[in-house]
Amino acid sequence: MNSSNDSLAMQRITRLVDENSFIEIGSLVTARSTDFNLAATDTPSDGVITGHGLIDGNLVFIYSQDASVLNGTIGEMHAKKIAAVYDMAMKMGAPVIGFIDCAGVRLQESVDALDGFGLIYAKEVAASGVVPQISAVFGSCGGGLAVVPALSDFAFIEESKGKMFVNSPNAIDGNRIEKCDTSSAAFQADENGCIDATGTEDEILADIRELVGMLPLNNEGDVYTDECADDLNRACESMDAMKGDPRYLLSEISDSHTFFETKAGYARDMVTGFIKLNGMTVGAVANCTTVYDEEGKESEKFDNVLSAKGCEKAAEFVSFCDAFEIPVLTLTNVKGYKACKCSEKRLAKALAHLTSAFAGATCPKVNLITGEAYGTAYVAMNSKSIGADFVYAWPDAKVGMMDADLAVKIMYADASADELAEKAKEYDALQGSVMTAARRGYVDLIVDPADTRKYLVDAFELLYTKCAYTPDKKHGTK
Predict the structure, then answer these.
(1) Helix, strand or coil for residue 347?
(2) PROSITE patterns under this entry (predicted)?
(3) Which of 219, 336, 224 is nearest to 276 (CA)?
(4) How far is CA 19 from CA 85, 138, 210, in A?
(5) 228 burial type by CB count under 10 A (0-12 exposed, 13-18 middle, 19+ buried)
(6) What is the pLDDT of residues 177-213, one digit of tens each?
(7) Where in the chain is the domain with CATH 3.90.226.10?
(8) For 411, phi and psi rounded to 5 degrees?
(9) N or C: which end of the chain has fewer CB within 10 A?
């Protein structure tokens, strides 16, 4: 049962949902204001189509702004329609998907429109952690409207026509749009930290369908979202050789090699996304040192250190997973912190957020050490000391305070080169090996890279019924 409306806004909805599953709500609503001769203007659906449909049989609620009606601007009734979608989604426990194509506040309605903005913000905040929220920017999304995708759990932007900004490029001192288009999809995806992917409309709609299929429908939903046709004991080949790029590792571990990456363009030294293990959706956080292109050649290199952007990206992702009781897997390969002035300005705060996210999360947590795990940078990456349920490691992993060569140079500053080399071997054996960490209980199991999948499947199966008790408090402050 679809509306006869053939606008682009409706076309986007029908291309997203299962065939003939969309039912429009509030199609007869129009603008209520009569100021500035607005009553003489035809405002069908007040510029936003709202309703519900199915994605692979899963209920979703949708709003899609119609730029052909008053440029899709937000007025009183427009906002109330969106708020009503949120209210119904909260009652039914189903995701909310918003398609944004809007020129901003409807000037003819002034304070009523402003109140409408606030109403939308309030509904997003109320729904946060209760139902997944997904936004897609298909047109303009400027000023205060940029808060809407930023408050969503996942956001996409169309690569050519999508524009997102708080201040327009020409309003920024020293900048012009010809110099740097800060509203472009590419800039926003790489710099603002809330865009998961860019692409054509069809690519974004396909991504949203895949994402909805991987997520629990609400915070009481089941993480078993699919049947597993893959071999649970399948050997994972080339894991050790490709360990620098966790995108490869996660794809290799996952059922049918499924990996959905989030915030793909932002903080590329930290990878986040979703995999499947025996049909269970698992959130993944991983340090990245190498990016391979489609031909298997290195396209980017990073030091295995924590950056401020990387910590913020990971912390936000872990918080989302914990809110929806999605298990978290970390692939750890880190030796310290990024040393640059830009990162140093907010690195301590970002580290605090990351540490708080992992330590405060009560969802199942498993850490796999694939390379180095040194110092407090490792502690923040879901170590056993801040609450990991299981810590696994590959045989050649290094776990300790720091690299043995650096440690002995500090401990034996006046020693000769031969003595330093000898002490480094001794330090590595006593304090830097994965075996030493395992003997002290900080690593639960040393696994061969090829056997990684079957051990992770077993770990998350065991943790499915995990129940953790936390102190009675309103919420943390970090």
Answers:
(1) helix
(2) COA_CT_CTER (PS50989), COA_CT_NTER (PS50980)
(3) 224
(4) 21, 22, 16
(5) middle
(6) 999 999 999 999 999 999 999 999 999 999 999 999 9
(7) 8-211, 223-394+447-465
(8) -70, -35
(9) N
